[in-house]
Design a protein that fits this description.
Low-confidence stretches: none
Mean pLDDT: 88
Structural class: alpha/beta
Radius of gyration: 19 Å
Number of domains: 2
Shape: elongated
Strand content: 15-25%
CATH architecture of the largest domain: 3-Layer(aba) Sandwich
Oligomer: single chain
Number of helices: 8
CATH class of the largest domain: Alpha Beta
CATH topology of the largest domain: Rossmann fold
Length: about 220
C-alpha cells in the first residue's frame, strides 16, 4: 500500500514511517501542511495519514482541499486533541477516521487496512477538457490548442475547480471555500484579481471565450455562449 504521511514532528514521523515500512507499506513523508497538500493533490496514494495541527497549513485545510477537487483517498487524522468536537470537525471536513495521540502502531495499522478495504467512489478524473482547453491535474499541466499555459498554484486550483464544474455557475462563496478555504468573505478583490489573470491566460488571443462572469451570481467556464 502506498501511504502519504504528513507529520511535522520528525521523530514521530520517522518512527511511524519505519514501522509502516516494516509492515510492507511504501511511505512518503511531508513535514508541513503546505508541502503535504501539494504532494497529496498530485495523487497516487492509497491512504493519507496527517496530523491535525501542522505548520503553514492546517490538517483540516488539506482534507477540505482534497475533497474540493473530488479526491476520494481515505484519510486518517492523527491528533493530540481528543475532544469530541475535534473529532467531529475532522470527520465533517472529509476525514474518514480519527486517531488520538498517543496511539499504538498495531491499532493504526489495523485502521489504515480497514480504510483501504472500504469501497470508494471512482477516482476523480485527472484529465479535464473544455473545448480546446485541457488540464492534467496529475502532472499539473494546462494547454489550450496544444499551447502550454503557465499558471501559479492558486490559478491552477481555481481553473481546476471551474473545470470540474463546467457549465455551472459557481459563486464567490463557493470559490472562497474550495480554493482559499475561507468560510467568510475577506472583503478583498482577491477573486477578481485571480479571475482576471486566469482569463488573460486562457482566453486572450482566442476567438472563443471560455471564462464568463455572470453578473450578480458568479462565474462559469463553458464554450457555450
Amino acid at each position: 500500500m502506498k501511504i502519504l504521511l504528513i507529520e511535522d514532528d520528525r521523530r514521530a514521523s520517522d518512527y511511524l514511517t519505519k514501522g509502516l515500512r516494516e509492515l510492507g507499506h511504501a511511505v512518503d513523508q511531508a513535514f508541513d501542511g503546505e508541502a503535504g497538500c501539494s504532494v497529496a493533490l498530485a495523487g497516487g496514494f492509497d491512504v493519507l495519514i496527517l496530523d491535525r495541527m501542522l505548520p503553514k497549513r492546517d490538517g483540516l485545510e488539506i482534507v477540505k482541499a482534497l475533497r474540493a477537487v473530488g479526491s476520494t483517498v481515505p484519510i486518517l487524522i492523527l491528533s493530540a486533541l481528543d475532544e469530541v468536537d475535534e473529532r467531529v470537525q475532522g470527520l465533517r471536513a472529509g476525514g474518514d477516521d480519527y486517531l488520538a495521540k498517543p496511539y499504538h502502531l498495531e491499532e493504526l495499522a489495523a485502521r489504515i487496512d480497514a480504510l483501504a478495504r472500504r469501497p470508494r467512489d471512482s477516482a476523480p478524473i485527472s484529465r479535464l477538457k473544455v473545448a480546446d482547453l485541457e488540464l492534467d491535474s496529475r502532472n499539473r499541466k494546462v494547454t489550450r490548442a496544444n499551447r502550454k499555459i503557465e499558471l501559479t498554484t492558486r490559478e491552477f486550483q481555481l481553473l481546476e475547480f471551474l473545470m470540474r464544474h463546467t457549465g455551472q455557475v459557481v459563486t464567490r462563496t463557493m470559490i472562497l471555500e474550495a480554493v482559499w478555504d475561507y468560510h467568510f468573505d475577506p472583503k478583498t478583490n482577491v477573486i477578481d484579481v485571480h479571475i482576471s489573470r486566469l482569463r488573460q491566460a486562457i482566453d486572450k488571443g482566442y476567438d472563443v471565450q471560455l471564462l464568463h462572469t455572470i453578473r450578480g451570481s458568479g462565474y462559469t467556464l463553458t464554450d457555450d455562449p
